[in-house]
Amino acid sequence: MLSSAQAPRIDGAPVMSPLLTTTVPRGYVHRASVAEVLLTGWDTDTEASADASDAFVVRAQWPRSHALFTPAHGHQDPLLLIESIRQAGTLLTHTEYGVPFGHQFLMWDMFFDATPAAFATSSTPTDVELHTTCHDIVRRGRSISGMRYDVTVRRDGLPVATGGARFSCTSPAVHRRLRGERPTTTGRALPAPVDPADVGHTNREHVVLAPPVPARANRWELRVDTDHAVFFDHPIDHVPGMLLIEAARQAARAATRQPDALLVGLESNFIRYAELDAPCWIEAHVERAETAEELRVHVRGTQEGEQVFTSDLVLRRPAG
User: Helix 79-95 crosses helix 241-256 at what angle (to 10 degrees)?
Assistant: First the structure.
């Protein structure tokens, strides 16, 4: 890490090379591993209107190589965008709204809509700016208990995607009253995965769907591997939202038989906790597409007869 005291200076002011960067502290984005931190900084959005006091610019960098979200067919993995949006919310909640560390966050919905150009790979990591506006803020004393935020993603100064999320947060004491002592492992044998090639992966460890139920088309059991270094970066007492989103993408690819399709749109709603100690079932329904290039799929997850999440996905067929 290069501090401002070590950086080159012009007229006494530090000059940071655009090629030199670091990430925000990992605690701000609820990650144990520094390698999983995508955000590199944030500031007030000076371009926002004068009455938009809750507007910020959050900077992110998507690596050319990642343990899970790897580039393919000339595009970065779109889940890097989803994870950047998630991290932006936790960063701003701690730094700008005074939510103490240790509070538990509950995501209610996440969405994005992007052009394929947003994910085009190059000879360097992908730098993006997330112009973020926070609203519907529920204040509690000097802190907050929840909010919604909308994001416009810019790459090389051009808007390439929009997105956002809504979440609530609770103190550790309230979380213990709500959840009790829930397990942080499944306590069950991990079922075998589907063929990685069917869901756009090469590594079976990243496959989150078990083979489909013979009597039910496009229905799979969710594979929950609490030893997975990315989805379970740290112990957690429920299935994380990013794992559910990846399950929805894999189900959409399998149902459409388009394992290389690029995810360009997503709207996910999280209804209740997906628990670790009971099977979760993923179902996909392919819907009518508006164009020949697009595929639309509705996915839902159920557990013990109750719906836990839904996702509506837009996939783009690979060129050629």
Answer: 160
Q: For 72, left (φ over 0), alpha (ψ -120 to 50), or beta?
A: beta
* Cα-based angle 212, 217, 223 (whole degrees, multiple of 5): 25
How crowded is the C-beta side of 156, counted as CA atoms within 13 Å? 8
Q: Which amino acid is at 253?
A: R
163-193 pLDDT per residue, tens:
999 999 999 898 888 888 888 899 889 999 9
Angstrom distance (rounded) from CA 182 to CA 278: 12
Q: What are residue 154's DSSP bridge partners?
A: 129, 159
Contacts of residue 95, Cβ cutoff 8 Å, sequence gap at least 6: 28, 42
Q: How far apart are CA 202 and CA 259, in angstroms?
A: 11
Q: Tens digit of pLDDT for each residue in 207-249? A: 999 998 776 789 999 999 999 999 999 999 999 999 999 999 9
Q: What is the pTM of this model?
A: 0.91
Helix (H, G, I), strand (E, B) or coil at 293: coil
The helix/strand/coil state of 134 is: strand
DSSP secondary structure string, 121-177? --SSPEEEEEEEEEEEEEEETTEEEEEEEEEEEEETTEEEEEEEEEEEEE-HHHHHH
